TrEMBL record:
Any Pfam family matching the protein: SnoaL_2
Domain named SnoaL-like: residues: 19-121
Coiled coil: none
Record protein name field: Membrane protein
Length: 140
């Protein structure tokens, strides 16, 4: 299960709790439960610009990229935006590459828009591609 350094999840604003609980479900992985936190017309823009409209899209992609992956959720930042409440979740990924090699400390930033108690937009960035290039001996 995902880890969270956020000590008092109940003290988070409602929109951040929705995002936290979504991330917990998505990291199990339980895309059907994760989808209950999302609107029916959600737009998920994943790493590399891949667009999905259901929580199962990123789960299926992650199954190709990793043997398994979890999030160490470090912080949630909340602000009111034009589209709704914006929640940023930052932290690191840890897990195992398909060849069985473990990894940790892979930074991530997820940006969510929450409106009417549901996630309507999600944007995902992380260092996985950079780490894959380095593992293959390609450096900038």
């Amino acid at each position: 299960m995902a880890q969270s350094r956020v000590h008092d999840v109940d003290a988070l604003p409602e929109e951040a709790r929705i995002v936290h609980d979504f991330l917990e479900a998505s990291m199990k992985p339980d895309p059907e439960k994760a989808a209950t936190y999302m609107s029916e017309d959600v737009v998920i823009t994943f790493t590399g610009g891949r667009v999905y409209h259901h929580a199962s899209g990123p789960t299926e992609f992650n199954a190709m990229r990793y043997s398994w992956v979890k999030k160490d959720m470090v912080s949630f930042d909340v602000a009111q935006g034009a589209e709704g409440t914006v929640v940023y979740s930052t932290g690191t990924l840890y897990g195992e590459w398909p060849d069985g090699t473990p990894f940790e400390g892979n930074r991530y930033v997820d940006r969510f828009v929450v409106k009417g108690g549901k996630i309507v937009k999600m944007d995902v960035w992380n260092d996985s591609a950079e780490r894959i290039l380095i593992r293959r001996g390609i450096t900038a």
